[in-house]
Each structure stands twice: as C-alpha cells, then as structure tokens.
Specification:
24% of the residues lie in helices and 23% in strands. It has 343 residues and is α/β, with parallel strands linked by helices. The strands form 2 sheets. A 6-stranded mixed β-sheet has the order 5-4-3-2-1-12. A hairpin with a 2-residue loop joins strand 3 and strand 4.
C-alpha cells in the first residue's frame, strides 16, 4: 500500500488583543481556539505577541514617553510555566487542536518576542524566540538563540515558524527548510496602519511577498497571521485624533500552498478566521521541481553552518573540574618591516 500523508484543516486567526491585559486577551484567545475547534481545525495559529499586545508606542513615542507602557507590558507578560499557559493548554486539549500563539514572554528581567507551540493534548512542545528584534523593538525584547530555531515533528507534519522581519534572514529561513519544515508559521504585528511610517503603506505587500516566497522557496505551506489594530489600542495610546500617526484596522492573514498560491484569504482590515485544508501530499510535486534542501541544493558550492546550542549567560563549574588556564598574552615582538606602514 502506498504511503499516506496528513490532510487537515488549519485556522489562521486575525485577532486584536485586549491591549496590555493578559487575562482578558488569554480568555479571548481561548474562545477563538474553541471556535476554530468547532469548525474542525486541527491547527490554530495566532499573530505575533497577541498576548498581551504589540508595543506600538515604540514607533510613536520616545523611550521616556513609552516607559509607562513598558511597565504595563512587563506586568502582563507571559511566563512559560504559568496559569496563563495552563489555560491555553486546556483550551487546546478541549478543541483537539495544535495551537501556535505569539506572546511577550517574560524570563527574569527580560522580555522576549516568542511563538509558543502547544499540542492537541495541551502540552507545551516548544517555543521560538525572535532571534533579532527589529530596529526599536530592541528597546523591548531580548534576542533568542540557536536553541529556539527548531522544527517540531508532529502527527500533522513538521511545523516551525518565524516572526516578522526574521523572514528577511535568508539563512534562518533556509535552516528551517533544511530541517524538513512542512508547515511554516509566519507571525506579524499589524503595523500597516502606522500612517506616519513610510514603510507602513507597503507593509501588507511586504508580508504578501515574504510569505509567498518562503512557501515557494521552501516548498512548504505557510500560515500567515497578522493582527489588526483595535480602536481601543489607538485610544489608549492617545492618538484617537491623529490618523496621520496611527489608525484602527490593518492586518494581513492568509494560508498559502507550497506553490506560492493562496488557498485561504487574504483577509485584511478586520478580525476573522481564515480556514484552509492542508494536504501534505502537495509538497511532493513541489519538491519534484526543486527540493531546496535536496537535489536542488549545491553543498559543494554553498552550505549553511548553524549553531543550535543554548547560549546561557553563566555556567556553574563543578568542584572536580580543573581551573582553566588563562589565555596566553599576545607576543609583543615587532612586526616585520614589510608589514609596517609608513605614516
């Protein structure tokens, strides 16, 4: 009998947070997980840092002006071992759905822009911390490391994801392709309505191009999720009378096949759920033409080296471990005459 490949319904959720309110936003996410489960979704995906919301003030205010908002964000951030994640797990289990949701993760004194992965039994199977926060995002989030660049092998297929402008990091994208990714999560914030930013007017086009290119280049399904901005967010930031700075709306949510074509959406400017059937058998003919991590690769010319180890800030030394010898001091011998510069 020939091999059979998974086929299932996926849900891409276009949703706005209850801004900087972890508990209320978590409740909203759980309700949406239940809704998608009733519709038959076996994989339900939410946008970047939906819980408790994206820090839009970093593009609108100085760091000093934004400090009170950062305090609220920190106090409403999500720890992995917490009642918030347990509640998400119960919702995933009740719905019988794998869930991927963006959170502002808190560990110690630092926040991270994180994709959290839960299986259909409600267990946390892993996370991805954004490797490089973009521009002024570095005032909010720390960096992930190679241990967060992972592909999760599930009964639905091999699932992985990246966050926003990580999609411009071609080596990062290729690493996931090389690890066998079949279903890619592309999570973004709804910054297309930041009207004062010259890049905002093309943000949805950039999202479209990035998502469809990754699908085609990696021969993978892409579930692209992006939040719209709610009117309450604009009001809380104090810009309700400044449409020249920010306005409600935005977002770009779609599901894309391994040939780069839409199979669900795109949906813009409102909250809703985009559904599509994922049939992993479709990847076979995509890779027949160009398997980017197989017969279409040229490792004799180009190859990727990835360091997937954690990078802790400290490591305890065992009592039996010998002390390390200090590094030798560089030689102070004069340079040969031919290496000297005439100044």
């Amino acid at each position: 009998m020939a091999d059979q490949y998974p086929r299932f319904k996926a849900a891409a959720v276009s949703a706005a947070p209850i801004f900087l309110d972890r508990e209320a936003t978590t409740e909203k996410v759980c309700q949406l997980i239940a809704e998608a489960g009733r519709a038959g979704a076996k994989l339900t995906v939410f946008p970047e840092v939906l819980i408790p919301g994206y820090p839009y003030w970093i593009w609108l205010m100085t760091p000093t002006q934004g400090a009170p908002y950062f305090l609220r964000l920190y106090k409403n951030a999500v720890e992995i071992d917490s009642p918030t994640v347990q509640k998400l797990g119960r919702a995933a289990r009740a719905a019988g759905s794998f869930v991927v949701v963006g959170i502002s993760e808190r560990e110690g004194g630092t926040l991270y822009n994180t994709l959290l992965y839960l299986d259909d039994q409600g267990e946390v199977i892993g996370r991805h911390r954004k490797l490089q926060p973009t521009l002024v995002e570095r005032t909010i989030w720390g960096q992930g490391d190679g241990s967060d660049l992972r592909v999760f092998d599930t009964e639905l297929g091999k699932i992985a994801g990246l966050i926003c402008w990580e999609h411009t990091m071609d080596l990062t994208r290729y690493a996931l392709t090389a690890m066998g990714e079949q279903i890619h999560i592309a999570a973004w914030p709804g910054t297309s309505t930041l009207a004062h930013n010259p890049h905002s007017c093309i943000f949805n086009a950039v999202t479209d191009a990035a998502a469809r290119h990754h699908a085609l280049a990696g021969q993978t399904f892409v579930i692209n999720v992006q939040s719209p901005i709610g009117a309450d967010i604009v009001e809380q930031l104090g810009f309700q009378d400044r449409p020249d700075m920010i306005r409600p709306g935005g977002g770009w949510t779609a599901i894309i096949g391994p040939d780069g074509q839409f199979i669900g959406g795109p949906l813009t400017d409102k909250e809703d759920v985009v559904y599509a059937e994922i049939d992993l058998e479709q990847i076979i003919l995509a890779k027949y033409a160009c398997d980017s991590a197989g017969h279409y690769a040229r490792p004799d010319v180009l190859r990727l080296v990835a360091d997937l180890r954690p990078q802790p800030i400290w490591e305890p030394r065992r009592a039996t471990e010998p002390a390390r010898e200090p590094a030798p001091i560089a030689s102070a011998e004069p340079l040969p005459a031919e290496n000297k510069l005439d100044l």
